[in-house]
Structure formats: C-alpha cells, structure tokens
Amino acid sequence: MHEARFEFRLLRPILDSLQKDGIDIGSVLAKQGLRRELAHVQDTQQLSIIDYFRIQKDIALAADDLTAHFSRRRLTFRTGHYVVSQLQQSETLVELMDSLVDHFNMMHGDAYNSVRRSQHRAALVIDDTAFPYSFEGDPSLIQFIGECLLIKVHCLLDSLSGGLAETALRRIRVQRPNDAELRSLSAFWNVPTDHGWPTYELVYDFDAASRHFARNEQIDLSTTGLFNRVIAHLEQEISPAAPSFAQQTLAMVEDGCMRQDDVARRLGVSVATLRRRLQEAGLSFRDLVQQTRLNQAEAMLRRGRSVAQVADALEYSDIRAFNRAFKQRRGITPAAFARQSAS
C-alpha cells in the first residue's frame, strides 16, 4: 500500500457545509496541524488519506453521526462499534463481506451494497446511485467520497481478516474516468483499476476469500470503532510507527470505553502501566474521559438536547456536577453554550 494524497480543495465544500450546520470545524482542522480559520487554509495544501479519515472521524464524533454528515440519514457514532462486533463473528473474507453488506444495508434502510459471486471472483459492490448524499450536484465530490469509502471498506476487511483481504484483492472498479483529478487516490492500490463503472467494487479471488482465518475474539488496541480500526490499520501499513498509548487510549474512550481497567485490559497492560505511560505524555485518564464527555456534550447541546438530557446521557451524578465540569473547561455554562449555538 502507498499513501494516497489529495488537495484540501476537495474537502472545502464538505467543511463549508458542516460549519454552516454548527460543527466546530476550527478544532477539527487544528488537530491536523491546519489553520483554524477555514478561509485561511490554502486549497493546494496536500493531505494524506489518513488525514482524511482523521478529519471524518472527528466530524462524526462532533455530530454523533457515523456517516460524518455525508448522508441525510444519520447513524449514531456508536453503531460503528456494533458493526465491528458483528463482523468479528466471521471466519472467512466472504462471510465478512456478507455481514458488512447486510448490516450497513439494514442501518441505511436500503440495498446500496451487495456481494456478487462468480466461479473465480467475489466482489463487494457499492451502488450509490440512489444514496441520500447531503452534498448534491458535485460529481467530483461524490466520486471523491466514494473512492475514500472503497479504501475504508478494504482496510476494514483487511484488518479484520488478518491481512487476507490485501492478499486476495485482484482489482478495483471506480466511477471516475482515468484522466480525472482524483487519479492521485490510485496510488493506494497495488492492483489494476477499472474506470468509468456505474458502481464501486472490490474484486477478490474467490478461493482466497473462502479460506478460514483465525478469528480475533478481542478488539485489539485502539480499533473499537470503524474509524479507529481503519486509521490504525492505515498507520500500520503506511507509517512504520504504531499509534502511541495516548492515541490508543483516546480512541477507546471516544468510542465509549470509559473504565480505566477495561482500557488497560484491551491494551494488554496493568492499570499502573497505563497511568505511567499517560503521565509520560503529560496526560491522565481522567482528563481524557472528561474531555471526551464534554466534546460529546457540546455535540448534543448543538443538536437541541436539553441540559438535563445531556447530563443524564453522559451519566453525570446530577445537573450541578455537569454544570461545574462544563464551565470549568469551557468557561460558560451548558445552558449559555446551547443559547450561543442556537443563535
């Protein structure tokens, strides 16, 4: 695998729309080392495919929407954990493909995905012809989203199958013509690409895709959500350095694992070791939990949830405790933040 790159201008229409919807795009950009002001980021700024999924993940968390606002049909972020837990029951790549197709069709409410079998090939087909994109009238943008989705699905399948998907992959099919501006994304693939197809397809060798692989009973490291698993897999395949303990811990906390002993167990270390490694990075587990809960609180308040509903959903002991924690970190009360967001 190679690191595909693209220019920031491809993301601008998406981020403009999300900013208008009240998402704090400045914080999302700052986490990637970009200027907080969207207007000040140069269109020619080069980003990697990992940057794209990190940005998409942050948007999904802020909006509590697994689709990252790309679909008019919202899926709560926690559904990613559900999908991964279901996929991990599979023992062959074909079973993984069938499970992924079934669960995403069920959640999206229509048959946008399918698996096509032949004597020598098994293809995962994504047909977005009738998909309810939030961004309409921009074919290049839709094609960009579609090709990134193809990369995400393949990384997910490869991660869960222990590398079998990359070995079994024979070709991919995309909608754009060969001379389109998105050709830089082709750098990711080590197999031939067919252009101008009506659908997106991952075509695998059927015999290889039917082999059994060792099922991983435990979610490994920082891959409890769909985005975390894909990002971690890309980092391992493209970048030699593994995610830090702090990154892995934050990824688990963001996906709902709020108990320190549970995180330590999944990382394969003691609680004392986890504390020490976080301290070396200038962090504490409590700080990571509080920061994540307040990020979630902001997202819920922006969507019109009441202060009492948010305090209850995030399991604060009472509204006063929630008010104290929010004001200490944000400088204003949750109610004042909600009023500002509404205005």
Distance between the termini: 46 Å
Structural class of the secondary structure composition?
alpha+beta
Strand content: 5-15%
Shape: globular
Task: Report on the architecture of this protein.
The structure is a single chain. The protein contains 16 helices and 7 strands. The protein is α+β, with helices and mostly antiparallel strands and 343 residues long. The strands form 2 sheets. The chain has a 5-stranded mixed beta sheet. It is globular, with a radius of gyration of 21 Å. Mean pLDDT is 83; it is low at 219-224.
Briefly summarize what is shown.
This protein has 343 residues and is α+β, with helices and mostly antiparallel strands.
How do the helices and strands line up, and which of them pair or pack?
Elements: E1 5-7, H1 12-20, H2 25-31, E2 46-48, H3 49-63, H4 79-87, H5 93-108, E3 113-117, E4 121-126, H6 139-160, H7 164-168, E5 169-173, E6 193-194, E7 200-205, H8 206-209, H9 226-238, H10 245-254, H11 260-267, H12 271-280, H13 285-302, H14 307-313, H15 319-330, H16 334-342
Parallel strand pairs: 5-6
Antiparallel strand pairs: 1-2, 3-4, 4-7, 5-7
Helix pairs in contact: 3-9, 6-9, 10-13, 13-16
